[in-house]
Specification:
The chain is of the alpha/beta class. It is built from 16 helices and eight strands. Helix 6 links the parallel strand 1 and strand 2.
């Protein structure tokens, strides 16, 4: 009695000789241990052929015993036995089908993810080369009036610091519109005491109505040809405004997104977010610039042509992702949306898991709202960049695939720690590992490219953080997305919410290390 599990065909001659030596005068039993039977099935014809050539005869058990097949394998009789037999068959078939579905999801998710990051890298490379060939614009050649709009709610910790930094901008022709959105702390009083009388700063306060309404209020009191909208916890580089303005020399440009960087890298969570901002948000924005499919002009640093804002009606208040919705409406109106990755803004990201989950839920739910609001465009002939690239990208890679990504990681772990070949991936563990880690190394290579374009150093520590970040983020985003779907299905609404500020944002010169 010789047990055989997943016999590899390349080793059959040696295996067969060993079996022949042990099988003479005995019974040879092939046993697959209950795992995947693919290799055993492939090996069996060659085993039979080999032993036939050695003079062995193959007979069934019934022939060997001189009995009929039905005597050896009698059919079940009785109602209960028949039901049990059918139930056993159904369970086996369901298990087999489930195994195949899981196996397919694993590879489909990896293939789709790999396709996206390669496509993003390709278009980012093309846009990077295109940017390098653009003519240099001397300072002062194009200096329209810029209105920098800063909405704030309970920002007493960061508000004064943000305005002071804006006043140090090396762009000459600008005004600051600070809107206190009914804060319950000392935000308005601190700003009023510090900047009242400064001719470049206009200070307003109004009843609380949310960020989008506050931005619209600021736009209505602004005089600039270009509107730069930032968050009250954001520190702009002194060159940021001057660089944001240059793309507006093209009259077709309606909006420009800057490069948002994490200014408070004080723990593992904030460092992971810094990696995400570099490898996903800013790098993706550079790639999508090439085909005019930028999804979001970030709220932390976004510039808009004033006439284009008025044409589309400013910010809508019907989604939690007003920046995503505005970008989509700008594209629908036929405007070009650009990325300016050398216009740096340093923002404060959540430092605790509670605040992180709260922020990401708002982003996820807001993106779902924005997609649903513009869903009639998907796969139509209107605005091909929206209907065939941007909206499908939102649907597949931000609303569907994150639901399955944690499953990919879990299946990888199950396949590595399977016992006695009992895993669904037994017989395929090598393939699973090769595909999984090949995708990771591809991810590392493209992340290195993203860091290089962003002027940052990519180290071994970064690669390790990237590995952990990818796995843990997928799990966290799955929880966030599941919660968003649950809210959407139940038809519940959610408020904007307030993130607790720490004031830990610092201006970090590039290149830098994560």
């Amino acid at each position: 009695d010789i047990g055989v599990t997943g016999v590899q065909t390349c080793a059959l001659p040696i295996y067969a000789r060993t079996v022949r030596q042990q099988a003479l005068g005995n019974i040879l039993l092939l046993h697959d241990a209950g795992g995947m039977r693919n290799e055993t099935v492939k090996a069996l014809p060659r085993i039979i052929e080999y032993f036939k050539k050695q003079g062995f005869q193959f007979v069934s058990i019934s022939d060997l015993m001189g009995r009929k097949r039905d005597d050896i394998m009698p059919k079940e009789v009785g109602l209960i036995s028949q039901y049990l037999e059918k139930a056993d068959y159904v369970v086996l078939m369901i298990n087999y089908a489930w195994d195949q579905i899981i196996y397919s999801i694993f590879f489909l998710a990896l293939i789709l993810s790999a396709f996206k990051i390669v496509a993003v890298a390709f278009f980012a490379f093309l846009q990077h080369c295109k940017n390098k060939k653009m003519p240099f614009v001397p300072e002062g050649v194009f200096e329209p009036l810029v209105s920098i709009i800063v909405p704030a709610y309970n920002e007493e910790i960061t508000g004064v610091k943000t305005v002071e930094n804006l006043l140090r901008s090396n762009y000459n022709n600008f005004e600051i519109i600070f809107i206190d959105d009914g804060s319950t702390d000392k935000t308005y009083e601190l700003i009023k005491d510090r900047f009242d009388g400064n001719e470049k700063v206009k200070i307003f306060t109004k009843p609380n109505s949310g960020k989008a309404a506050s931005l619209n209020y600021g736009i209505s009191h602004a005089n600039g040809e270009i509107m730069v909208c930032i968050d009250a916890d954001t520190i702009l580089d002194t060159n940021a405004v001057a660089r944001l303005v240059i793309p507006f020399m093209d009259v077709n440009v309606g909006a420009v997104g800057g490069n948002v960087k994490v200014g408070n890298k004080i723990n593992l969570l904030t460092r992971w977010q810094s990696i995400e901002y570099t490898t996903s948000q800013n790098f993706d924005r550079l790639a999508y610039d090439y085909i005019n499919t930028i999804t979001v002009v970030p709220g932390a640093i976004g510039a808009f042509r004033g006439s284009a804002l008025k044409e589309i009606g400013g910010f809508d208040v019907d989604t939690l992702a007003e920046d995503c919705d505005l970008t989509l409406r700008m594209l629908r109106a036929g405007y070009r949306v650009r990325a300016c990755n050398d216009a740096f803004a340093y923002t404060e990201v959540p430092e605790s898991m509670k605040m992180f989950m709260k922020q990401r839920f708002r982003w996820s739910f807001g993106i779902m709202q924005s997609f649903w609001k513009h869903r009639e465009l998907i796969f139509t002939r209107r605005r091909l960049n929206l209907s065939w690239v941007l909206l499908p990208n939102l649907l597949i890679f931000q609303m569907i695939l994150p639901l399955f990504s944690p499953l990919v990681d879990l299946m990888m772990l199950f396949s590595l720690f399977s016992f006695n070949g009992a895993s669904v991936f037994s017989g395929n563990i090598g393939q699973v590992g090769i595909f999984y880690f090949s995708y990771y190394f591809l991810d590392v290579l493209i992340s290195m490219m993203a860091f290089h374009y962003d002027g940052q150093k990519f180290t071994f520590r970064t690669a390790w953080n990237l590995f952990l970040q990818r796995i843990i983020y997928r799990l966290l985003l799955f929880v966030v997305l599941f919660k968003s779907y649950r809210k959407a299905i139940k038809g519940e609404l959610t408020g904007w919410g307030v993130l607790k500020r720490t004031g830990n944002v610092e201006h970090v010169k590039v290149p830098e290390e994560v």
